[in-house]
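Listing S7. Sequence submitted for prediction.
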Amino acid sequence: MQKGDFIKIDFIGRVSATGEIFDLTVEEVAMKERAYNERQKYGPVLVIIGANMVVPGVEKQLENMEPGQEGDFQLKPDEAFGRREPGLIKIMPRSSFISQKIEPVPGIFVNINGQQAKIQNVTGGRIRVDFNHPLAGKDLDYWVKIAEARALMEYYGIQAEVSLEGPRLSVRTKKAMPDLVRGLVEEKFKEWVAEIKEIEFSTEEKAEDRPGESKNQDEQQAQDAAPDASA
């Protein structure tokens, strides 16, 4: 796999020390191990290589895998959700919770000013809160399988050769793309792959072979190239 590839993966994530499942996509395993959540949608999930949609250690493994391949591996905290930071454990007044209509109870997770935190202890008017990620500081075991893979341009139904050298991306298509389509593709590349700073488009089609295209044709092709919002 390489940056810009769209893949769908199945995975099971466990805490190494206990074997507890913290996340997964395989419904039968969820039911077998009593981790089933009726509100969760099971099945392969979309990941774009290079878009930081998974923790660094998982992405590194995916880059070295092929479609249909599966594997087991363990990640240290630095490759997963980071180390626990003592500075993220804070003492807050009860009034901070009351103003947000939150009843502070030890062990529950709350959202404070857009950040998730766990209440560790309640003593009178003082509340000890942990803003570390729940999996910070933990070794994690993963099983991952690449269920499906296709290059980003294939996702848009465009035949092209794509290469990435540092921050520069080169896209060479068999046929010239309308300006609206090219603009959409450029926008999505930069949105999904943060490392890309410059994109160069080229085509095998000669200028004299390109048919005239109206504005309406451009707009229609742009709509056809747009991804399904439900994906």
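Caption to Listing S7: primary sequence and predicted structure tokens for the chain studied. Residues 179-192 form the longest helix (14 residues). The domain at 86-130 is CATH 2.40.10.330 (Thrombin, subunit H).
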